[in-house]
Amino acid sequence: MCFVRHVGHEHLIGAFVLIREVHGVLGHELADERGVLLEALEESTNESLDPFDLICHVAFDRPPLTRRERADNVRKRNVFTKYGEQAREVLGALLDKYADQGLESMGEIEVLKLDPFPALGTTVELVKRFGGRDQYLAALREIDAALYEPA
User: Fold this and answer.
1) Distance between CA atoms of 147 and 86, rounded to whole angstroms?
2) DSSP H stretches of helix in 1-132
3) Among 147, 105, 106, 112, which Cα is nearest to 129's?
4) Gap between the Cα atoms of 59 and 49, Å rounded
């Protein structure tokens, strides 16, 4: 990992900025274009790390948080108290999805067609819990921001 830190420092910093600003699949594609192989870096840690934490860990020797730890930190801060109980149920399931699979799985409404969401309701019903599509997408952006706030 020291070799990666020394030789790839500029590439890692560029990928760090890209992934922090552009989460999900697009961020991964941009990092890959810059020559950062996130999968190879992740394999070297043996943990379920968010690309942001992975790059910070490798480039800056910052202790990483796992995706589960990030999700738990959001829950502890009670970020979603403004939402009703039914919407919070969906948000909790989205945080679990992030902890298990990362942000790529959260960024689209289609994620609501995957387990465990069908057990909670149809996609339309789940989006209505937030007041509509725009409010649901705003809640996704809020999750994204909350995941990266300092604990």
Assistant:
1) 21
2) 2-7, 9-21, 24-33, 38-45, 51-60, 67-76, 85-101, 123-128
3) 112
4) 14
CB 127 within 8 A of CB 137: no
Amino acid code (one letter) for 41: L
Looking at residue 49, what DSSP letter applies? B
**What are the domain boundaries of the chain?**
2-60, 67-147
Q: What is the pTM of this model?
A: 0.70
Of residues 127 and 21, more confidence is placed in 127
The burial class, CB within 10 Å (0-12 / 13-18 / 19+), for 27 is buried
Q: Give the model confidence (pLDDT) of 86-101 as tens digits.
A: 999 999 999 999 898 8
